[in-house]
Amino acid sequence: MIVEIDNVELSFDQRKILYGVYLKAERGKVTGIMGRNGSGKTSLLKIWFGSLKAKYSHIRIDGIHQRQKLFKSGKVVFLPQHQLLPTKIRISDAFELFDLDWRTFIEHFESFKKYEKMRIRELSSGELRVVETYLVLSAKKEIIFLDEPFSFVAPVYVEKLKALMARKKKDSVIVVTDHFYRDILEVSDRIYFLKNGYSKTIETEQDLANEGYVLTSSRER
Ligand SMILES: Nc1ncnc2c1ncn2[C@@H]1O[C@H](COP(=O)(O)OP(=O)(O)OP(=O)(O)O)[C@@H](O)[C@H]1O
């Protein structure tokens, strides 16, 4: 499966946010999106998913223009930047909601064993992000959008989530954005950088330095 978005035009009031964007994401590859704060990454994911209306946007799946919002196809799952799960439910209920097996999760995230009967509100921000990202990645959808899955997450769990993404990309189109740029560079097979409303492909930390996203490439230090 190949999912593309182009001809995006988004403004808020008179402020142009996106106007020269083309992204292509495909099964078998993780597609990363990077850019400074406010460059439009979240907006772009929302337009792609269908929860934000742009003046123009053109979305294709396997070359076929999609008239309906992508989320209506039932093929896509979206981890939003802000909390996904309701705070009152138990963690075990969240696994039931996603039709996923708690024991499989525990095989990979053993230290979460003690939380099974706890409620979502009892998790720390990072623990919640691990659970939410795991659920979304494991949701057996053809298209997976992840907006900042690594926020608040300890390096050991980031590694586990990256390994999960590497496994899941065989079955699903995965698009991810995050400011943990080294992790995005590592896990992504193709990376787009958003700047001044446009997208361009980048590959290395040096490219990010050239775009002014990081101060200097670590190789130069
Ligand atoms: N509902 C809104 N109303 C007005 N302006 C908005 C709205 N949503 C986003 N914006 C503006 O659009 C721009 C892009 O926001 P967006 O959240 O897409 O950026 P981002 O690249 O995801 O940023 P970050 O890395 O900080 O999460 C920002 O300047 C933001 O202020």
TrEMBL record:
It holds the Pfam family ABC_tran. It comes from the Bacteria. This is ATP-binding cassette domain-containing protein. PROSITE patterns: ABC_TRANSPORTER_2 (PS50893). It comes from Pelagihabitans pacificus. SMART domains: AAA. GO terms for molecular function: ATP binding; ATP hydrolysis activity. The keyword Methyltransferase does not apply. Keywords: ATP-binding, Nucleotide-binding. Residues 3-221 form the ABC transporter domain.
